[in-house]
Amino acid sequence: MQILPYRFEGEVVRGFGRGGKELGCPTANMDDSVIQNLPESLQVGVYYGTAILEGEKYSMAMSIGWNPQYQNEKKTVEIHLIDYAGGDFYGKRLSAVIIGFIREMKSFGSLGELKSAIAKDIEVARRETVDQNKL
Ligand code: ADP
Ligand code: MG
C-alpha cells in the first residue's frame, strides 16, 4: 500500500464507552480532525504501527472502521497501545505512524472468535514493530 507509512496526530476522545475494555482491549478513539484528514485510499481494516503518548513510545494495533453512531457514514480511528499500563488518557494528544496493514474488518460469529482475532492482531503488531522500537 503506497500511502504507508502514514503519520498523524490528534486528541483522544470518548467513544461508546463499551466494547474495548470489556474485550480486554481498550481503544483510544481519535478526534474528528484525524478522521477527516485520513487519505481516501486508507481502507477500513486493522493496522499496526507505533504511537507516542506523553513522550513514551508504544507499539500499536489500530482499526479504521465505520461508526455505527453515525449510520456507518463516518469513520472511526481507534488505537490500542500495546503494553501500556497506566490509567485513562482521554483528552491527551497522541501522535502515531501507521506502518502496515494487518487484515480487513469482518464480523465474527462469537465473542471468543473476536477476542482471538484481536489477540492475533496484537501479536502481529508487536512482532512487526520490534525493530522500530529498538531505534
Ligand atoms: P471508549 O469507547 O471511550 O474509547 P474504551 O473501552 O475503548 O472506551 O477505552 C478507551 C480508553 O481507555 C482510552 O481512551 C484510554 O483513555 C484508556 N486506555 C487505557 N489503556 C489503554 C491502552 N492500552 N490502549 C488504549 N487506550 C487505553
Ligand atoms: Mg475505544
TrEMBL record:
GO MF assignments: ATP binding; riboflavin kinase activity
EC top class named in words: transferase
Keyword set, alphabetical order: ATP-binding, Flavoprotein, FMN, Nucleotide-binding, Transferase
Domain Riboflavin kinase: 3-130
Gene Ontology BP, a term: FMN biosynthetic process
Keyword Iron: no
Pathway terms, separated by semicolons: Cofactor biosynthesis; FMN biosynthesis; FMN from riboflavin (ATP route): step 1/1
EC number: 2.7.1.26
Gene Ontology cellular-component annotations: mitochondrion
Protein name as annotated: riboflavin kinase
Organism: Caenorhabditis briggsae
Lineage: Eukaryota, Metazoa, Ecdysozoa, Nematoda, Chromadorea
